Amino acid sequence: MNWLKKTLRFGEKIKKIFKKRPSKSDIENSDWISCCKGPMSKADLEKNLFVCASCNKHFHITPIQRFDMMFGKGNYEILKTPLYKEDVLDWVDKKSYKERLKQAKKKTNQDCAVLVAKGKLKGIDVTIGVVNFEFIGGAHGQNESEAIIFAAEHATKNKTPLILMPCGGGQVMFQGARALVGMTRTAVAVSEFKKNTNLPYIVVFHYKCAGGITASYAHLSEIAIAENENSEIIFAGRRVIEGTIKEELPSNFQKASWALEKGFIDNIIDRKDLPEKLGSLLSILLNKKSQVSSENNEQTSESNITTREAS
Length: 311
What we know:
This protein has 311 residues and is an alpha/beta fold. 45% of the residues lie in helices and 15% in strands.
């Protein structure tokens, strides 16, 4: 048994050399994050809008960070959205839904996965709703759906363009039919906004958007954009589809690059360019420059007519 004692003693020495593996909480609270070239400072990453300068990986950012990016810090107002009782089914599996909600609220400092804000984007008043994936995977229950509906109603009442930035794994299974009905209600809300205002409704996909989110309000916009080519736009998962059709799907299937190729989205705009490009796009859609363009066109046409008559 001497070999066993030696092995155990060697194991104890190894334990002393190598520290205990960091927990998920340790990683989240660290000043460092890992990417393609190893550890990098979160402070340096933040300076580049949480995009890796080497591989262009887009890390998760919170709705507040997105509003700061779109409007500028302190130049917007967070709107209070309706809140309803969440755990009507008293759901319990590995742990209770109440506990999941408690942890999510503490982690994100949000009451639900969706935050709505109003502000000026390049001088244009807009209403923006952003989904936080860190809040139970961005899944939509009644409160998330109500926040989307509120955003559409606020944009209608205040006559502003509506920009929604969805992500998430679909509807919250812990709420049953109360979550599922949100698909219909959010779809109706954005449809009513478009019908009653004739103002732009733009969707910006980021990270993963799946299931009932993709199948409702996220695919009803006049213009659909992804913030990087690896953003995923999904209804049913890849394995489910391959198992159903018994075929292997392309490697970039359901990625933004594939969606752009197939016409499901209109453009891919990098995170750092979103405020400028969205501002320009809204300016065009709202005819802010139409008078200048019309005057230039009329002058050009008159010049061409004069030239032709002179010749």
